[in-house]
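Need a sequence for this fold. Nothing fancy.
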């Protein structure tokens, strides 16, 4: 750990010696052969065998899988990736993802759990052993939905056909949590958390976007429309963008982008359920249908994230371009505590401990637009 006891000594102020990887970030020399980037991106690189694939602190060794992918996808001929498994086609990339993940490759899942057994002293490998010989291919996913395999990449268990529930491996098998104490804990003793007053879970009110970015005041109704708080919670019907064009999903989601709003707000701007609306702020524009619901609080709208821009997105009256997605209205706001590194579960990792996507501090102006839309 780079910051023992959560105490951050600043080498720039002379509080400690600047030691890469200990009191400051690591310094790593990276060589790039830029003319070869495309060729390398089209192949599976050699570090997969030499370093393995690490996720959630567990390293998998997919040596057999590299041989399999070379036979399945074919090998690159010539150039800097000569002899490596090909990733040139979309199907090749899909096969590589499915082959290198324990959730779709039972051999890797079982190997990963055996690694954890040695580390934790708890019995875990049996969770995946029933599927040790199973490997899900891209063709399998095209034919039907395929249950995944219990893997140390995640904390839940599908062993014996049960449905996934998070942290069951921690609770039922006493696998330590990935925290400083190995337990669930709420107090964070890091200097930066103390400086922000967030050592314990605490309420933080939404940012004042009017003061920070000169956005219209919440609740204002004018010629441009009604100003509301804009939230992008996790998708209601899928994970990220999966299956958005499936007929059942299209039926559930009304066939395209939607924004949920309260009946009170809708009445203020003459919007009825299923009307086309436009949401605009300084970042962009969104065209969507309105879902008017009594379950929505006044002053706040939802646009569930990752609705596919390819499906039923008309041209916006405001911009003259196609009407955007959920992120068209959001901006990146980095919170300092998301950049803490080298302190147990607070160690930075892409897509895990931030900087996370911001979902709660945006505002937008919404209005009813022409109901005659073009694409």
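Here you go.
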């Amino acid at each position: 750990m780079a910051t023992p006891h959560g105490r951050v000594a600043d080498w720039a102020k002379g509080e400690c010696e600047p030691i890469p990887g200990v009191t400051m970030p690591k310094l790593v020399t990276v060589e790039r052969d830029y003319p070869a980037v495309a060729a390398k991106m089209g192949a599976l690189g050699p570090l997969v065998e030499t370093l393995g694939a690490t996720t959630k602190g567990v390293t998998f060794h997919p040596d057999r899988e590299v041989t399999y992918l070379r036979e399945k996808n074919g090998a690159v001929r010539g150039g800097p990736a000569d002899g490596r498994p090909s990733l040139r086609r979309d199907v090749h990339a899909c096969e590589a993802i499915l082959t290198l993940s324990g959730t779709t490759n039972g051999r890797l899942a079982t190997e990963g759990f055996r690694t954890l057994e040695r580390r934790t002293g708890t019995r875990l490998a049996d969770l995946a052993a029933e599927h040790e010989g199973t490997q899900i291919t891209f063709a399998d996913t095209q034919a039907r939905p395929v249950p995944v395999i219990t893997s140390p990449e995640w904390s839940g268990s599908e062993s014996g056909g049960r449905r996934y529930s998070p942290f069951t491996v921690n609770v039922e098998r006493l696998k330590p949590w990935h925290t400083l104490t190995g337990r669930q804990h709420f107090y964070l003793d890091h200097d930066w958390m103390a400086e922000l007053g967030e050592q314990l879970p605490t309420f933080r009110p939404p940012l004042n976007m009017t003061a920070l970015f000169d956005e219209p005041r919440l609740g204002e109704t004018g010629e441009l429309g009604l100003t509301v708080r804009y939230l992008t919670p996790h998708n209601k019907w899928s994970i990220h963008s999966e299956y958005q064009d499936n007929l059942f999903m299209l039926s559930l989601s009304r066939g395209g982008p939607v924004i949920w709003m309260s009946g009170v707000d809708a009445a203020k701007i003459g919007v009825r359920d299923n009307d086309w609306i436009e949401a605009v702020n300084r970042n962009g524009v969104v065209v969507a249908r309105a879902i008017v619901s009594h379950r929505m609080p006044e002053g706040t709208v939802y646009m569930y994230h990752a609705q596919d821009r390819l499906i039923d997105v008309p041209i916006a009256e405001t911009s003259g371009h196609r009407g955007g997605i959920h992120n068209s209205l959001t901006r990146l706001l980095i919170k300092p505590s998301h950049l803490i590194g080298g302190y147990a579960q607070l160690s930075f990792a892409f897509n895990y401990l931030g900087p996370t996507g911001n979902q709660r501090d945006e505002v937008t102006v919404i209005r009813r637009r022409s109901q005659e839309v073009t694409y």
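For context: Strands lie at 53-55, 58-60, 221-222, 225-231, 258-261, 276-281, 284-292, 300-302, 362-368.
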